[in-house]
Amino acid sequence: MMPRSSDQLLLPVNPWFMWTTLVGALLLNLIPLGRQPAMPDLMALALVFWNVHQPRRVGVGAAFMFGLLMDVHDSALLGQHALAYTLLSYFAITIHRRILWFTPGAQAVHVLPLFVAAHVTSLLLRLATGAEFPGWPMLLAPLFEALLWPLASWLLLVPQRRAPDPDENRPL
């Protein structure tokens, strides 16, 4: 008999749950809270999470489509969020095998540069088209997204942690 590990086996992800959380993150981003430069991008957080955990189901194409939807909503330069989300997803899929070895806190440190790169990409595109610099508080958004990573990990993996048919003879 194998010794019990502190890691729990996860059930397969329900595709409906995965896509519902992505659409839910998009809807949360659409809430009109005004122009807050330090506001974390929940769509980017959800995309990176599912790119790391389900890279075959959520890929660069989904990131591009969600990016276009964000561009239309924000009346931003068409392709600004799409490019940022596409790059973010590509690099998240690139590191997905390595990142899963770490605890959620250490994973947050690994995804922080991805979030910074996505925000810098959007900022550079905005500045290249003549927009004004939004201010230094915008540098807090990637930090807030990385700080939300452990909470997002816990919340989005809850449905996979439940036992499908628990009993005293099968503790998994």
TrEMBL record:
<dbReference type="GO" id="GO:0008360">
    <property type="term" value="P:regulation of cell shape"/>
</dbReference>
<dbReference type="InterPro" id="IPR026034">
    <property type="entry name" value="MreD_proteobac"/>
</dbReference>
<keyword id="KW-0472">Membrane</keyword>
<keyword id="KW-1003">Cell membrane</keyword>
<dbReference type="Pfam" id="PF04093">
    <property type="entry name" value="MreD"/>
</dbReference>
<feature type="transmembrane region" description="Helical">
    <location>
        <begin position="108"/>
        <end position="129"/>
    </location>
</feature>
<dbReference type="GO" id="GO:0005886">
    <property type="term" value="C:plasma membrane"/>
</dbReference>
<dbReference type="InterPro" id="IPR007227">
    <property type="entry name" value="Cell_shape_determining_MreD"/>
</dbReference>
<feature type="transmembrane region" description="Helical">
    <location>
        <begin position="135"/>
        <end position="157"/>
    </location>
</feature>
<comment type="similarity">
    <text>Belongs to the MreD family.</text>
</comment>
<keyword id="KW-0812">Transmembrane</keyword>
<keyword id="KW-1133">Transmembrane helix</keyword>
<keyword id="KW-0133">Cell shape</keyword>
<protein>
    <submittedName>
        <fullName>Rod shape-determining protein MreD</fullName>
    </submittedName>
</protein>
<feature type="transmembrane region" description="Helical">
    <location>
        <begin position="16"/>
        <end position="34"/>
    </location>
</feature>
